[in-house]
Design brief:
19 strands, 3 helices, single chain, 15-stranded mixed sheet, mainly beta
């Protein structure tokens, strides 16, 4: 399932009137523009290219023109064309990419830029401001545009559920899906969608942990060795957790039984 499709499911979930709320942790209110993961600026440049598309029911893969795409903490940025595409001659190394548009909630990812350059295989997805307002307004839920949304996307073939995620920033609850029905939980349900979303997350930076299903899978956050993930206002931050069967090539950095 693509990122756009996942966020379509998120919005349809909210339209069903079942948005969960809950507690949160402490986290950090550091400026995400300063705390975003990056490596010192390199003299070596490589081409980063991709596309910004609109997320929401019936709008999958619709290109967004005029979106600002920037490498956070640097002067490198581009504006998308009519086809939603962008190209940036970027410093090699770890960078945080942020896509913004006046009419949309933005999207943020962390990537490692190789010397050979990179074409993003998944679109950067933004969600219409009007759709966010319509969906959550109908529920009587106030979405705070001064806060963000962070979701952990589990890349796994395991359909038995049990993978979990946590963040240390204050937020208004986590949810996942069980057979397309919403569940207020920080644990992936069996046969459900393999992502966990945290809403109204405090802006700044947060530790993100992902754990495999006990006795079944082991998960690693990608890219590796990101100590704190940025959370921007009015933005969806995507974190990927790659999971493998226990005994496979990948091994969890922390065991869920020892949290």
């Amino acid at each position: 399932m693509t990122t756009t499709t996942r966020w379509t499911a998120l919005l349809m979930f909210a339209l069903a009137g079942c948005l969960p709320t809950g507690g949160g942790g402490g986290g950090s209110n550091d400026d995400p523009m300063e705390m975003a993961p990056s490596t010192p600026e390199s003299e070596q440049r490589a081409l980063v290219s991709g596309r910004v598309t609109r997320g929401g029911e019936g709008d999958d893969d619709t290109p967004v023109a005029g979106a600002r795409v920037q490498l956070v903490g640097t002067e490198f940025e581009a504006t998308t064309g009519d086809d939603g595409r962008f190209e940036i001659d970027a410093p090699v190394g770890r960078q945080t990419i942020l896509a913004e548009h006046a009419d949309y909630w933005g999207g943020a990812i962390v990537i490692d830029i190789p010397a050979a350059g990179i074409e993003l295989t998944d679109d950067l997805t933004v969600i219409p401001e009007s759709l966010i307002a319509q969906v959550y307004g109908a529920l009587g839920v106030e979405v705070d545009p001064t806060r963000g949304i962070l979701f952990v996307d589990f890349d796994t073939d395991h359909d038995g559920g049990g993978e979990t995620a946590s963040i240390d920033a204050a937020h208004d609850g986590a949810f996942t899906f069980d057979d397309d029905a919403p569940v207020a939980s920080d644990t992936v349900a069996a046969d459900g969608d393999s992502f966990i979303a945290f809403t109204n997350v405090q802006v700044g930076s947060t530790v993100v942990d992902a754990f495999g299903a006990p006795g079944a899978t082991a998960c690693d956050i990608q890219p590796a060795h990101v100590e704190r993930w940025p959370v921007f206002p009015r933005t969806l931050t995507q974190v990927v957790a790659r999971c493998a069967d226990r005994g496979g090539a990948r091994r969890a950095t922390r065991d869920p039984e020892t949290r």
